[in-house]
Amino acid sequence: MRERVYRTEALILRRSDMAEADRLLLIATPNGKVRVVAKGVRKISSRLAGHIELFTHASLLLAVGRNLDIVTQSQAINTFTTLRNDITRLSCAYYVADLYATLTEEGEENRPIFQLLVETFAALDLSINPDLILRSFELRLLQIAGYRPHLHHCAQCGTLLTEDANRFSPLIGGVLCPDDQHSDPRALPMGGSAFRLLRYLQTQPMSTLEHLHLSATVRTEVETLLHAYLRHVLERDLKSVAFLHHVMRGE
Protein backbone atom coordinates (compact mmCIF):
# COMPACT_ATOMS: atom_id res chain seq x y z
CA MET A 1 0.00 0.00 0.00
CA ARG A 2 1.36 3.39 -1.00
CA GLU A 3 2.28 5.75 1.85
CA ARG A 4 0.06 8.82 2.17
CA VAL A 5 3.09 11.06 2.61
CA TYR A 6 6.50 10.49 1.00
CA ARG A 7 9.76 12.34 0.39
CA THR A 8 11.67 12.62 -2.87
CA GLU A 9 14.45 14.56 -4.52
CA ALA A 10 13.20 16.68 -7.38
CA LEU A 11 14.16 19.20 -10.03
CA ILE A 12 11.54 21.86 -10.76
CA LEU A 13 11.31 21.94 -14.56
CA ARG A 14 8.09 23.79 -15.34
CA ARG A 15 5.46 25.72 -13.40
CA SER A 16 2.17 27.43 -14.15
CA ASP A 17 -0.41 29.28 -12.10
CA MET A 18 -3.44 27.34 -10.92
CA ALA A 19 -6.59 28.53 -9.12
CA GLU A 20 -6.16 31.70 -7.06
CA ALA A 21 -2.87 31.05 -5.29
CA ASP A 22 -1.64 27.57 -6.32
CA ARG A 23 1.00 26.45 -8.78
CA LEU A 24 1.12 23.36 -10.96
CA LEU A 25 4.67 21.99 -11.16
CA LEU A 26 6.30 19.53 -13.52
CA ILE A 27 9.12 17.91 -11.60
CA ALA A 28 11.77 15.34 -12.41
CA THR A 29 12.41 12.74 -9.70
CA PRO A 30 14.37 9.46 -9.53
CA ASN A 31 11.00 7.76 -10.10
CA GLY A 32 10.26 9.75 -13.26
CA LYS A 33 8.58 13.01 -14.14
CA VAL A 34 5.35 13.89 -12.40
CA ARG A 35 2.96 16.82 -12.04
CA VAL A 36 2.27 18.06 -8.52
CA VAL A 37 0.48 21.01 -6.90
CA ALA A 38 1.96 23.58 -4.53
CA LYS A 39 -1.05 25.01 -2.75
CA GLY A 40 -1.11 28.66 -1.67
CA VAL A 41 2.45 29.17 -2.87
CA ARG A 42 1.65 32.48 -4.60
CA LYS A 43 0.60 34.06 -1.32
CA ILE A 44 3.12 36.47 0.22
CA SER A 45 3.03 34.47 3.45
CA SER A 46 3.91 31.14 1.78
CA ARG A 47 6.96 29.38 3.20
CA LEU A 48 7.24 27.15 0.15
CA ALA A 49 7.76 29.82 -2.49
CA GLY A 50 11.52 30.24 -2.14
CA HIS A 51 12.15 26.50 -2.26
CA ILE A 52 10.26 25.64 -5.44
CA GLU A 53 11.67 28.22 -7.84
CA LEU A 54 12.14 27.09 -11.43
CA PHE A 55 15.25 24.94 -11.95
CA THR A 56 15.78 24.30 -8.25
CA HIS A 57 17.09 20.96 -6.98
CA ALA A 58 15.05 20.29 -3.85
CA SER A 59 13.95 17.70 -1.33
CA LEU A 60 10.14 17.59 -1.36
CA LEU A 61 7.64 16.14 1.06
CA LEU A 62 4.52 15.18 -0.89
CA ALA A 63 1.06 14.16 0.23
CA VAL A 64 -0.85 11.78 -2.02
CA GLY A 65 -3.82 13.58 -3.59
CA ARG A 66 -6.86 12.34 -5.44
CA ASN A 67 -5.63 13.56 -8.83
CA LEU A 68 -2.32 15.28 -8.17
CA ASP A 69 0.07 14.91 -5.26
CA ILE A 70 0.55 17.99 -3.09
CA VAL A 71 3.81 19.63 -2.02
CA THR A 72 3.68 20.06 1.76
CA GLN A 73 7.36 20.83 2.46
CA SER A 74 10.37 21.77 0.37
CA GLN A 75 14.03 22.26 1.18
CA ALA A 76 16.37 23.56 -1.52
CA ILE A 77 19.47 21.44 -2.17
CA ASN A 78 20.90 23.62 -4.94
CA THR A 79 19.31 26.78 -6.36
CA PHE A 80 21.78 27.12 -9.28
CA THR A 81 21.90 30.87 -8.72
CA THR A 82 24.31 31.65 -11.57
CA LEU A 83 22.19 29.68 -14.03
CA ARG A 84 18.95 31.42 -13.09
CA ASN A 85 20.51 34.89 -13.35
CA ASP A 86 22.20 34.48 -16.72
CA ILE A 87 20.04 34.51 -19.86
CA THR A 88 22.36 32.21 -21.83
CA ARG A 89 22.52 29.55 -19.13
CA LEU A 90 18.81 29.97 -18.46
CA SER A 91 17.94 29.33 -22.11
CA CYS A 92 20.07 26.17 -21.94
CA ALA A 93 18.15 25.05 -18.85
CA TYR A 94 14.80 25.56 -20.62
CA TYR A 95 16.06 23.41 -23.49
CA VAL A 96 17.30 20.65 -21.15
CA ALA A 97 13.93 20.58 -19.39
CA ASP A 98 12.06 20.55 -22.70
CA LEU A 99 14.10 17.69 -24.15
CA TYR A 100 13.76 15.63 -20.97
CA ALA A 101 10.00 16.22 -20.80
CA THR A 102 9.56 15.28 -24.45
CA LEU A 103 11.72 12.14 -24.46
CA THR A 104 10.42 10.56 -21.24
CA GLU A 105 7.08 9.19 -20.11
CA GLU A 106 5.33 10.40 -16.97
CA GLY A 107 5.88 8.19 -13.92
CA GLU A 108 8.53 6.06 -15.64
CA GLU A 109 11.31 5.38 -13.10
CA ASN A 110 14.79 6.18 -14.41
CA ARG A 111 17.38 7.11 -11.79
CA PRO A 112 20.27 7.47 -14.30
CA ILE A 113 18.34 10.15 -16.20
CA PHE A 114 17.57 12.02 -12.97
CA GLN A 115 21.25 11.96 -12.01
CA LEU A 116 22.13 13.17 -15.51
CA LEU A 117 19.73 16.11 -15.09
CA VAL A 118 21.26 17.07 -11.74
CA GLU A 119 24.77 16.84 -13.20
CA THR A 120 23.77 18.87 -16.25
CA PHE A 121 22.19 21.70 -14.26
CA ALA A 122 25.24 21.81 -11.99
CA ALA A 123 27.54 21.97 -15.01
CA LEU A 124 25.47 24.69 -16.70
CA ASP A 125 25.68 26.70 -13.48
CA LEU A 126 29.48 26.79 -13.65
CA SER A 127 30.62 25.96 -17.19
CA ILE A 128 32.35 28.29 -19.63
CA ASN A 129 31.19 25.96 -22.44
CA PRO A 130 27.41 25.67 -21.95
CA ASP A 131 26.88 24.63 -25.57
CA LEU A 132 29.18 21.62 -25.11
CA ILE A 133 27.34 20.72 -21.91
CA LEU A 134 24.15 20.59 -23.99
CA ARG A 135 25.74 18.34 -26.61
CA SER A 136 27.01 16.00 -23.89
CA PHE A 137 23.56 15.98 -22.28
CA GLU A 138 21.88 15.17 -25.61
CA LEU A 139 24.18 12.23 -26.30
CA ARG A 140 23.93 10.79 -22.79
CA LEU A 141 20.16 11.22 -22.62
CA LEU A 142 19.79 9.50 -25.99
CA GLN A 143 21.96 6.63 -24.79
CA ILE A 144 20.01 6.09 -21.55
CA ALA A 145 16.69 6.34 -23.41
CA GLY A 146 17.78 3.70 -25.93
CA TYR A 147 18.52 5.94 -28.94
CA ARG A 148 22.33 5.97 -28.85
CA PRO A 149 23.66 7.12 -32.23
CA HIS A 150 26.34 4.92 -33.81
CA LEU A 151 29.60 6.87 -33.73
CA HIS A 152 32.21 4.12 -33.46
CA HIS A 153 30.75 1.48 -35.79
CA CYS A 154 28.95 2.03 -39.07
CA ALA A 155 25.22 2.46 -38.50
CA GLN A 156 24.55 0.40 -41.64
CA CYS A 157 27.00 -2.52 -41.60
CA GLY A 158 28.60 -2.38 -38.14
CA THR A 159 32.22 -2.18 -39.27
CA LEU A 160 34.66 -0.18 -37.14
CA LEU A 161 34.70 3.43 -38.32
CA THR A 162 37.90 5.17 -39.33
CA GLU A 163 38.79 8.84 -39.77
CA ASP A 164 37.67 8.81 -43.41
CA ALA A 165 33.99 8.46 -42.43
CA ASN A 166 32.23 11.67 -43.46
CA ARG A 167 28.46 11.05 -43.56
CA PHE A 168 25.95 11.12 -40.69
CA SER A 169 22.52 9.58 -41.22
CA PRO A 170 19.73 10.48 -38.76
CA LEU A 171 17.50 7.97 -40.57
CA ILE A 172 19.83 4.98 -40.24
CA GLY A 173 21.07 6.01 -36.82
CA GLY A 174 24.56 7.45 -36.97
CA VAL A 175 27.78 7.63 -38.94
CA LEU A 176 28.20 5.67 -42.17
CA CYS A 177 31.43 4.09 -43.38
CA PRO A 178 32.69 5.06 -46.88
CA ASP A 179 31.30 1.84 -48.38
CA ASP A 180 27.80 2.66 -47.11
CA GLN A 181 27.80 6.42 -47.36
CA HIS A 182 25.33 6.33 -50.24
CA SER A 183 22.83 4.06 -48.46
CA ASP A 184 21.01 7.19 -47.31
CA PRO A 185 20.87 9.91 -49.99
CA ARG A 186 19.89 12.42 -47.30
CA ALA A 187 22.85 11.67 -45.03
CA LEU A 188 24.53 14.85 -43.80
CA PRO A 189 28.15 15.75 -44.55
CA MET A 190 30.41 15.60 -41.50
CA GLY A 191 33.88 17.04 -41.12
CA GLY A 192 36.70 15.25 -39.34
CA SER A 193 36.80 17.67 -36.40
CA ALA A 194 33.05 17.31 -35.85
CA PHE A 195 33.36 13.51 -36.00
CA ARG A 196 36.12 13.52 -33.38
CA LEU A 197 34.16 15.86 -31.12
CA LEU A 198 31.01 13.74 -31.32
CA ARG A 199 32.93 10.64 -30.27
CA TYR A 200 34.68 12.53 -27.49
CA LEU A 201 31.39 13.89 -26.12
CA GLN A 202 29.81 10.43 -26.20
CA THR A 203 32.52 8.83 -24.08
CA GLN A 204 33.96 11.52 -21.80
CA PRO A 205 32.45 13.08 -18.63
CA MET A 206 31.17 16.65 -18.59
CA SER A 207 33.98 17.65 -16.26
CA THR A 208 36.49 17.35 -19.12
CA LEU A 209 34.71 19.80 -21.42
CA GLU A 210 36.15 22.93 -19.80
CA HIS A 211 39.54 22.15 -21.34
CA LEU A 212 38.28 22.10 -24.94
CA HIS A 213 38.96 25.05 -27.22
CA LEU A 214 36.97 24.67 -30.42
CA SER A 215 36.00 26.88 -33.31
CA ALA A 216 32.45 28.15 -33.65
CA THR A 217 32.23 26.28 -36.96
CA VAL A 218 32.87 22.88 -35.35
CA ARG A 219 30.50 23.61 -32.46
CA THR A 220 27.73 24.61 -34.86
CA GLU A 221 28.30 21.58 -37.09
CA VAL A 222 27.99 19.15 -34.17
CA GLU A 223 24.86 20.93 -32.97
CA THR A 224 23.34 20.67 -36.46
CA LEU A 225 24.06 16.94 -36.69
CA LEU A 226 22.66 16.14 -33.26
CA HIS A 227 19.56 18.27 -33.73
CA ALA A 228 18.88 16.54 -37.03
CA TYR A 229 19.11 13.21 -35.21
CA LEU A 230 16.85 14.43 -32.40
CA ARG A 231 14.36 15.71 -34.96
CA HIS A 232 14.21 12.22 -36.43
CA VAL A 233 13.79 10.56 -33.01
CA LEU A 234 11.19 13.03 -31.74
CA GLU A 235 9.53 13.52 -35.15
CA ARG A 236 9.47 17.28 -34.58
CA ASP A 237 11.52 20.27 -33.51
CA LEU A 238 11.37 21.48 -29.92
CA LYS A 239 10.01 25.00 -29.40
CA SER A 240 12.86 25.74 -26.99
CA VAL A 241 15.43 25.35 -29.81
CA ALA A 242 14.32 28.60 -31.46
CA PHE A 243 14.62 30.46 -28.15
CA LEU A 244 18.01 28.90 -27.54
CA HIS A 245 19.27 30.01 -30.96
CA HIS A 246 17.88 33.50 -30.46
CA VAL A 247 19.80 33.90 -27.21
CA MET A 248 23.06 32.16 -28.10
CA ARG A 249 23.39 33.32 -31.71
CA GLY A 250 21.17 36.36 -31.87
CA GLU A 251 19.07 34.70 -34.59
From TrEMBL:
Gene3D superfamilies: Nucleic acid-binding proteins, Recombination protein O, C-terminal domain. GO terms for cellular component: bacterial nucleoid. GO terms for biological process: DNA recombination; double-strand break repair. Residues 5-80 form the DNA replication/recombination mediator RecO N-terminal domain. The keyword DNA damage applies. Keywords: DNA damage, DNA recombination, DNA repair. InterPro entries: ARFGAP/RecO, DNA_rep/recomb_RecO_N, NA-bd_OB-fold, RecO, RecO_C. Pfam families: RecO_C (PF02565), RecO_N (PF11967). PANTHER family: DNA REPAIR PROTEIN RECO. Involved in DNA repair and RecF pathway recombination. Belongs to the RecO family. This is DNA repair protein RecO. The gene is recO.
